Amino acid sequence: MMQTQTVQFIILATTKVGEKSLVLHTLSEEWGRRSFIVSISRTSSMALYLPLNVLEAEVLPNSKSELWRLRSVSAVHPLNGLRGDVRKGTVSLFMSEVLFRTIRDGANEDGLYDWCVRSVLTLDAMQDSFANFHLRWLLELAAALGFSPSAEDLAPFAGQHLGKLRELLKRDFADCMLLPMTGAERNEVAELLLRYISHHTESAINVRSLAVLRELYA
């Protein structure tokens, strides 16, 4: 008989199944990208299952199904900073969608989960000057996936923005946040970085929340 175990994971997305079940698409250190199912009711707090929430739950393995059930789900971090700021919420939606569309089921890059948790907690804690956060985050994601982007590697995708990319690559995190950019520049750099990641992962990354980010940084 397969034993239960307690696991921490990040919510990438959810899919409702009928009125009483929710499929959680997650990333964890133990299993990488994997989906689980959890029971919900009309009184369940759906805020618990928002994208990028870091949760802990007991996993109930099932030898007859790959979709294992979770119980005793709870939040590991409150993420009050993330949920109380519309701008951060928009960035977090973008991040979760990119992760959901980039990381394949079963994929488990070494250190990817820990990096994702650190990224979420960093954004949650920031007070201001995070307009460039998603750009630096996309570069770090590429590195976490094993691409180790350089200016030369990015040049075919960069167009007129190679100079900005060089700055984002060479500056430390705090200085990256202070790099002057217009809203149009941020949007174009985000799009080219998504093309770069899409090329390396051989997957089409159609991120719907990018349109919301464009409005945010118009």
What's the structural blueprint in terms of helices and strands?
Layout lengths: L4 E13 L3 E8 L3 E8 L14 E7 L7 E8 L4 H4 L2 H17 L9 H14 L7 H12 L6 H8 L3 H9 L2 H5 L5 H19 L8 H7 L2
Parallel strand pairs: 3-5
Antiparallel strand pairs: 1-2, 1-4, 2-3, 4-5
Outline the structure in words:
By secondary structure, this protein is an alpha+beta fold. It folds into two domains: 5-75, OB fold (Dihydrolipoamide Acetyltransferase, E2P) (Beta Barrel), CATH 2.40.50.140; 80-216, de novo design (two linked rop proteins). It is built from nine helices and five strands, in the order E-E-E-E-E-H-H-H-H-H-H-H-H-H. The protein has helices spanning 80-83, 86-102, 112-125, 133-144, 151-158, 162-170, 173-177, 183-201, 210-216; strands at 5-17, 21-28, 32-39, 54-60, 68-75. Strands 1-2-3-5-4 form a five-stranded mixed beta barrel. Helix 4 packs parallel to helix 8, helix 5 packs antiparallel against helix 6 and helix 8 (183-201) packs antiparallel against helix 9 (210-216). It is globular. The relative contact order is 0.13. The model has no long low-confidence stretch (mean pLDDT 92).
If you compute it from the alpha carbons, what radius of gyration comes out, rounded to the nearest whole angstrom? Answer: 18 Å
The overall number of domains is 2
Number of helical segments with 4 or more residues: 9
The overall strand count is 5
Q: Remind me, CATH topology of the largest domain? A: de novo design (two linked rop proteins)
**Secondary-structure element order, as H and E?**
EEEEEHHHHHHHHH
Read across the widest sheet, the strand sequence of neighbours is: 1-2-3-5-4
Low-confidence stretches: none
> What's the level 1 CATH class of the largest domain?
Mainly Alpha
Strand content: 15-25%
Helix vs. strand class:
alpha+beta
